[in-house]
């Protein structure tokens, strides 16, 4: 069974929000309808987005780093949002594994949002309908578009190629190989929802590796000097 998904490389995401704006632009003009925006240029803007980028600081001072974490619907293989929908508006499509919403059936009850452990469903306050990422389902199968353009808008807009798209069930696909080679992981797998989207973990940069080498060398030098000054008794340490 085909399972289309995103694989996001956290090592090269720079938090530019190109994925956010391109997603908003495409889905506002596509099948998803006009997504609400209230006071977009005021101090407290509020709107509906399918894709958001969360930025936070990781580590302990002074060894900290900024992490940009894009998050949208994970198109779970066992989506908890589907069985709770009282009208059948939320469903998982068999041919490509996408979790979608039939807007004609949605009554805006928010049951699916409560059931989603990832907080990626948003109510459109203007239309009173639940919305979420569709992986640009109206684009990826559109034969009127050149094949190179049959990808989600966020993937095409990413300037660093941090977002990959494909069938994670195809062992020869780009996304499957990236998951296997880079140790791709699911978000909160303990919930048992089997998220289709995966993340590629951050790798240490050459600067970080060099800093660790310098620290180890400095620690070794300090131990050697302490031993020369008689501050360390190796025999006593060995007996402990």
Cα Rg: 24 Å
Do you know the CATH topology of the largest domain?
Answer: Alpha-Beta Plaits
Order of helices and strands: EHEEEEEEHEEHHEHEHH
Percentage of helical residues? 25-40%
GO molecular function, one term: 4 iron, 4 sulfur cluster binding
Domain 4Fe-4S ferredoxin-type: 4-34, 64-95, 97-126
Protein name: 4Fe-4S ferredoxin-type domain-containing protein
Keywords: 4Fe-4S, Iron, Iron-sulfur, Metal-binding
Provide structural commentary.
The protein is of the alpha+beta class. The chain has helices at residues 18-29, 111-115, 137-140, 153-157, 174-182, 206-228, 234-239; strands at 4-9, 37-38, 46-47, 52-60, 63-71, 90-92, 99-101, 122-124, 129-131, 163-167, 198-200. The chain has two domains: 4-202, Alpha-Beta Plaits, CATH 3.30.70; 207-239, no CATH class. It contains seven helices and eleven strands. Keywords: 4Fe-4S, Iron, Iron-sulfur, Metal-binding. GO terms for molecular function: 4 iron, 4 sulfur cluster binding; metal ion binding.
